[in-house]
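Human: You know discrete backbone vocabularies at least as well as I do. Show me how you would write down a chain together with its backbone fold. No explanation is needed for now; the record alone will do.

Assistant:
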Amino acid sequence: MPKAKPRAPKQGAHALLGASSAHRWLHCPPSARLCEDMPDTGSPYAHEGTLAHELAALKLGQAFTEARSKTAYSAARAKLLGEIGKAAVLAENGGTAPRTDETTAKRAEASAAASAEAAVGVYVDMIRDDHAQLQGKPNVFIEQRVDYAHVVPEGFGTCDCILIGQGLDGQWQLRIYDYKHGKGVPVEAEGNPQLMLYALGALALFAPIYPITLISMTICQPRRDSLTSWAIPTEELLAWGEHIRPLAQQAHQGEGDLQEGDWCQFCPRATRCRERAERFVALEAYEYRLPGDPRDPLTDAELGDVLAIGERLDKWLSALRKHVQDTLLAGGTIPGWKLVEGRTVRAFGDLQAAFQLAKDSGVKEELLYVREPITLTALESLMGKKAFTETLAAQIIRKPGKPTLAPESDPRPAMTRKSAADDFAEDTPRAFFAYDNLDPNHTAEAYAIT
């Protein structure tokens, strides 16, 4: 089977109906045209994510397609890690440089860079493992441009990575991979429209060369310890493409109804959207009026519905607050609001000079510094994943996280409440919660609250 020649991505181009925003424009078709001329202001987190993707592409290229000399690769890697470290520190500080001395800043940047490289390493190792499971010599395409304009007008995008090869059954498979560097919003592979559009574009590009019968899509989000995959037969993907074709046409023409939902979170006009504002200003479910006697307490079902709206309201108000603040910082005016100086933070203008004066006054030097261990992730990056696992695997435990409220759509397993009889059973350590996802290498006593 001949090897396909990938087409080079079109630099700096963005599709009106981009795959990354498909969740929004498929639910709210007019939003595509309404956001068309709005500037993409970006964010510190987006810049950090872009750099992390460049690091991933560098590592995958070194492993599969464009191996550089050891010196050239090391130099490119070091340059990217330096940029990632600075971007990560800026992002953690809301886009502003932290008020610390140079030594502390460098340490923070190095730690952030090590953490990012470890996260990217999880993604690269996953693709290595998948590559090894396919027969023969699977083809690898990195940062591959794909066009899905046959379904979505003028639609195109760039896949982080594509694998094409034969499974153990001899059938040809197309594997789509998407790396998510963010750790705030979990993303699932199943039914994900971004990946499905990428898959349609990849299928159009490669199907004339490879008889592909199965398509798998994987999202790797290592900083959330999330790795999800989903497979779909070729004919089902093509059927989905036909299903969304009318919605894509509406979105391209700026037609259809505005709809508020969780897809609004990253909409460029979310803070100015009248449809969304009217929904939240009223904030009354069930056609903006709860049924029943107002003296009756809310039912459990009503509590869940109101909380779901309130969760989106919180995010909307947060985005609105930031938009108004940014407007005022840029010199604009918002009636009824002004900027005031917040709580001041004390800091040394010259840390070394300050410490010298403190030592001259009798403070011992060892009292001026705190020795702190590096994080587990940073140590893994320092040692390398293989050496880290071989040396320290027995020392690693996984502590159950604190109970956290989440919608039913969240992919994490639900916690289950123990009965009173279980809590006080003879010879059973007292525990308040039993978890569905306990580490099988640890005993129940390790998780008990005594």
